[in-house]
Amino acid sequence: MRAAEAKAALNRDHWEWDDDGAYAVIDPASLKAMVAMETPKVGETREQGCAVCLEGFVAGGKKLRMMPCSHSFHQRCIFDLLLRSRFCPVCRFEMPPRSADEPEPEPVAEKTATTSERVGSN
């Protein structure tokens, strides 16, 4: 199948605009599979850092998640990625796809610091 035919064969729901104004494929992982991933502690993983954000794993720091392929990431990093693509960013392991009966996840609003919080209140 040629690339153009493959694109046409994809369900329209799997496409969204990216920041450059081009279409990007959206193929989310199953939410059930995501929350079922193991939650290792620092030192229980092969990796010493997250391949998504490139930050090191720190004891007492961000929560970790281990995919079935045994690659570990910060929970927020891998969850954000798996909401768009069901593939491991390291080895391309395929997570189960989101089924039609799974609800859409609600976006998580990040708290942004006000200027006084960043600088310190007087």
Automatic annotation (TrEMBL):
PROSITE patterns: ZF_RING_2. One of its GO terms (molecular function) is zinc ion binding. Residues 50-92 form the RING-type domain. Keywords: Metal-binding, Zinc, Zinc-finger. Residues 96-122 are annotated as: Disordered. Pfam families: zf-RING_2 (PF13639). GO terms for cellular component: cytoplasm. Residues 112-122 have a biased composition (Polar residues). InterPro entries: Znf_RING, Znf_RING/FYVE/PHD. GO terms for biological process: protein ubiquitination. This is RING-type domain-containing protein. It comes from Triticum turgidum subsp. durum (Durum wheat).
